[in-house]
Amino acid sequence: MTPLTPASGASSGHDGISRRRLLGTAGAAGATGLVLGAAGGAAAYAVAVESPTALSTVGATGVAFHDRPHQAGITEPQQAHGHLAAFDLVPGAGRKEAAALMRRWSSLSADLMAGRPAGDGDTGVALDAGPSSLTVTFGFGRTFFDRTGLVAQRPPGLDPLPAFSSDQLDAGRSDGDLWVQIGADDALVAFHALRAIQKAAGAAARVRWQMSGFNRSPGATAQPMTARNLMGQVDGTGNPKPSEPDFEQRIFVPSGSDQPWLDGGSYAVVRRIRMLLDDWEKLSLHKQEQVIGRRKSDGAPLTGGTETTELALDETGPDGKLVVPENAHARISAPEQNGGAAMLRRPFSFHDGFGPDGTPDAGLLFICWQADPLRGFVPVQRKLDRGDALSAFIRHEASGLFAVPAAPKKGEYVGQRLLET
């Protein structure tokens, strides 16, 4: 990941007023936030994932769209605001229209992520803001290949996910030809990007579903830490890290795959997971921790240590019982319990109001990344489905699976290697 420097944004050749220049005096801390990312390379790429930006640099931080190993929005720190949307190509639209759409969307996203307006028709919603760590990520669903006549290029990783017992899926809020993930650390910047992408779809595609989410704002805690979900649990402790030697092979499709257009890309599994918060909040703290297998206060295993301490899965207490229960979520989802299966989780929380009885429609927009969903998400979810104590407090209400190509080079668009084969 290489955040843009002021120079890289200024050399774009666009005549529009740069949102970044409207920041005025961002202060020394803001300027530092822009310069630090200019070093690029693997070191900066890894550090950015594990060191969230300080609050004073939130507006000034930019992320590159082109010329990077993978699309933005996968390994960046979780942003405070997110939008997910799926689009379907309109009847009669095919490969030619899809290519034109991806060209428009890619050009638009490069401008928005650099802090530039969305062309001559910019609405001005984000006019006073800097890039705010905006990322726009694109993926293709299984049906996209049918509609564009590219079935022979559809990768096997897009085979439909199996059914799970906790699924109560709404077909209207699942799947889709095209998928867009938007994240930013400013709510107006995130909405501005969503609206611009939707308008730029033009007559080629229509919104199938759209969901919005949020996370804790960067700098809201005394020191960087793993985010909490709406159950109050530290969520994401076991994520693989770029510093690990097998990170790339677990998360990204290797070169030389059966579908070269996807080399360096990844697969995103997207699930809307309702949390049954009324039931969860009736549990005692002790019971909640038994369900998860970790302390709620700091995310450390019940067997002791800190958040990053390995689970001592064989440890027993004075009563002879396992300290981390057999059906604890942390135990069942641990890679060592699933043949090393791993996925990079990068979710957003959501809250879409209250029902007539006061029940919150809230939970997790679960997004996980892996090189192969049949070796990442599927085996772990199958095991959770058979005995996870957390299953009684959640409900999977929507689902999608998308192939996400690598980032385009300068002058190219996302999916060009697929659509111009």
TrEMBL record:
Q: Which SUPFAM superfamilies match?
A: Dimeric alpha+beta barrel
Where does the protein principally reside? other
Specify the enzyme's EC class, one word: oxidoreductase
Keywords linked to the UniProt accession:
Heme, Iron, Lyase, Metal-binding, Oxidoreductase, Peroxidase, Signal
Q: List where in the cell it is found.
A: Cell envelope
Q: How is the cofactor bound?
A: Binds 1 heme b (iron(II)-protoporphyrin IX) group non-covalently per subunit.
Q: Domain Dyp-type peroxidase C-terminal, which positions?
A: 226-407
InterPro entries hit by this protein? Dimeric_a/b-barrel, Dyp_perox_C, Dyp_perox_N, Dyp_peroxidase, EfeB/EfeN, TAT_signal
The answer to whether the entry has keyword Thylakoid is: no
Which residues belong to any copy of the Dyp-type peroxidase N-terminal domain?
71-215
One Pfam family it belongs to: Dyp_perox_C
The protein's annotated catalytic reaction(s) are: heme b + 2 H(+) = protoporphyrin IX + Fe(2+)
- Keyword Signal listed? The answer is yes
EC identifiers of the protein: 1.11.1.-
Q: Which cofactor does this sequence's record say it needs?
A: heme b
Q: What does this protein do?
A: Involved in the recovery of exogenous heme iron. Extracts iron from heme while preserving the protoporphyrin ring intact.
Q: Member of which family?
A: Belongs to the DyP-type peroxidase family.
Q: Mind telling me what this protein is named?
A: Deferrochelatase
Q: Tell me the organism.
A: Streptomyces kurssanovii
This protein's gene is called efeB
